[in-house]
Amino acid sequence: MMKKKLISMLLMLSLLLTACGAELNTTENSEKLIVVTSFYPIYLLAQEVVEGAEGIELKNMAQPQTGCLHDYELTISDMKLLEGADVLIINGGGMESFLQQAMERYPDLQVVDTSEGIELLEEEEHHHHEEETAEEHAAHADHDHEGNPHIWLSPARAAEQVEHISAALCELDEAEAEIFEKNGANFRAEAEILLKQAASIGIPEGEHSAVFHEGFAYFAELFRMENVFSVFADEYQMPSAKELTEAAEEAKGHGIHFFLTADDSGRIYGKTLAAEVDEKIVLLDPLTTAEEENLSYMERMEKNIEAVEKHWKEVTK
To answer: Are 239 and 233 in contact (CB under 8 A)?
Structure first.
């Protein structure tokens, strides 16, 4: 009797260990899909797509304090991250100047270009270049894009970017395709709400603007503004006194109400020129860096639209 009980207990223990072993192996083999985004705006968009998907591990490559990726160079940590990635999601449109280097190093890495098929605004040069040297002009030419790549600042275009991300992830993770498709559709609906919100402000078509960040050309388009001039400050060239004088004359001649600036090196020039016509700047968020509140893409874009609306109310009161 004791022998039968012992055999029975051993069988039960064996089955239990087998079951535990099977569960452990399942856990070990259930690796998540490693999705890497090139920089923070694309990370924000990808977050919207993968919300609720358990099989995705989303990582951002360039640090969220980097800003735009003009002339960005891959770091050792970037290379390590790309080495373990299943897919790299980029903005495209010429934004990721490091892409060729990455593909040479990781030729099998799948890349999703979210700008594919999206119409880009023409790239705008700095305001006036009469005093630019041949060397400076060559430096600018080396960094020209096929168009303005800051498409995430257009809600309609951002919705197209999200569709590209959703479609790519549906192919890579068919089990969670329904989640990606649903999230993509929700983003499209929310983007439509943003567009209606912008239109409801009532800014007349053709209202003049000046931009001090390359991406804000898409905001001028969003509100049907006519951009009179652009002044960009970067590592290649700061606006000269002559350029600022000419820009001030244009501001006065066109009665500009909207001086669209980010909280960066262009802000001081925006304030200077706005003061020439007794106006204030409209401080906007280009979404290129992380912020303390950790707001979503939609929340941050809504705040931008509200900033424009607030300024327009002050102008028309």
So the answer is: yes
Residue spans per domain, the chain: 33-115+122-127+146-196, 202-316
Residue 172: how many other CB atoms lie within 10 Å: 17
- CATH 3.50.50.60 corresponds to the domain 33-115+122-127+146-196: no
pLDDT of 140 higher than 60: no
- Report the C-alpha gap between 245 and 247 in whole angstroms: 5
- Domain 202-316 - what CATH class? alpha beta
Provide mean pLDDT across the span 108-122: 96
Q: Which two tokens stand for residue 292?
A: 């303390």
CA 69 to chain centre: 10
Question: Residue 72: its pLDDT value, please?
Answer: 85
Q: Is 114 exposed, middle or buried (0-12, 13-18, 19+ CB in 10 A)?
A: buried
| Closest to 11 (Cα-Cα) out of 3, 124, 92 | 3
Could you give the CA distance from residue 39 to residue 75 in angstroms, rounded to a whole number? 13
